[in-house]
Records
---
Amino acid sequence: MITCHVKYVIDPYQLAEFEAYSKAWIAVVRRLGGTHHGYFLPSEGASNIAYCLFSFPSLADYEAYRQSALSDPESVALVAAVVQKRFILSYERSFMRPLLS
């Protein structure tokens, strides 16, 4: 299993836009074969940092998801909204191997 950890720098004045985007991506990841562990939005502390975690059985499955997402109408629309509205300023993606009981 491979887990993708994403750290977002977001526009804190567009938190509602980011939250709507996040809810939609959870469904996209699940529909395209992944397990989404959720988004974690600012509460106390920094108001412009958010995180998400999602997993795929393998890196190859993650890469297949990325290819599918390029032509998936919902994911294409979500990316277009980010570009247009600019509520995500930057992001960092890391891949981890979970240690589960």
---
Amino acid sequence: MRSLAGDVIKHAFSQQTDEKLHRRLYAAICSCILEGSLKPATRMPPSRDLAGELALSRNTVLRVYEQLQAEGYISARTSSGTFVTDSVLDNLAQRPDKKNAPPAQEDRASLSARCLELIGNASASPRQWGAFIPGVPDVQHFPHRTLKKIQDRLARRLRPEFLTYDAAGGDGELKEALADYLRTARGVRCAPEQILITEGIHQALDLVTRTLCNPSDNAWIEEPGYWGIKNILRINAVNFSAMAVDEQGMVPPVSSAVSPKLIFVTPSHQYPLGSVMSLSRRRQLLFRARETRSWIVEDDYDSEFRFSGQPIPSLQGLEEESPVIYIGTFSKTLYPALRLGYVVLPKPLAAPLKKVHNDLYRGGHLLIQAALAEFIREGYYAAHIRKMRQLYSRRRQTLVDLIATQLGEDYLGPFNSNAGLHLILQLPAHADDSMIAQLANTQGLLVRPLSRYYVNEEKRSGLLLGFASIEEHEMAAAFSRLAGIIKANVG
């Protein structure tokens, strides 16, 4: 026998898209009850009748009725039938009125002071691919098929430890391959047990900051310097002092009232200016670290991509048992979405930091780590870096020529070394680099303002221009648009 309740349920059932019939019926009846189409005390259609109307088996309807009854939507009365429960009325009265509810807004009052400070200084770009975005490699030239073949072969004889939590700080074979590579290519003094594999460089920086600093401790950073380090220090309530950078790298103060727990540097290719820390400055920094019982955190940023002269060896390898924590990543040499970085820890820190990493972050991705270990051992990694070094060198020179031709030699910054994945386009001191960058971004030119990398009031005006992720034949047209924006806004 047809009923009004049956018609209401039938219409709602036709609106559901789930492939499982019992889930469609359950969702249909729930929506009817919660939206008020089936009011409290409404008699539900008998299971046999509803099954006939919806062309379902009676068992399907009974299964749904049992579930709804267990959840309190409906109740059965002996010899009377099944009804929507009266208690549903209480639930409906407590539901917010969606029609009159104000639009959802950010509840910043619930956020911590650390979080609010980080949000106010957030600098990550919402887009991560396009003309002149700095810090992003050319991901299209990576030999994806080669790495996938290795990974597929390992997957066919999958070991159980690849599928569980990692408690050893990374795949052992990857740590061995990395130790060999870093000793040879970067002059790093390390054994495999000193290496910890992390999920990118930010996790490595966060781990080091959390484990070695208490709230209100002090750190030194470079001025200008990487925004990611500042935000990690902010969220961990660590105070920091920005130390000026010149053509020889960070300038340590002659004396300091407060000793830093951590000293963050990018000695081989300073980020973002590009200067290389001199040998005398490196020795001075090591002396200060030993004197103040501080740890130097060496971010070996873009060290692989040096286009002239000999590679700059690491600060970590300059002395035996140096007070240096060496950090690197595969994001620039391979591709960012891989989310693999690494830390070379001084021997006294290796065991405790690995334990903390295991407890806080629960590492994984062991299959791709094992594949990457073979990728390195078989020489594919070094070959890829050589290939990309040549490609980036050509793209960098193309961009330098475009700047000199369309804007003039004065727009090439004084610190630009022939290395890395970006260069600095220097603007006149009075130019508003933030406004120019914003105008460029609206046209799809993903440049960054240099002033954003400073903490103190004295700032240089300029733009960070990445050249790695744009083809040479596309560069001229894109740069002409950027040059037009600059000329129109620099008096």
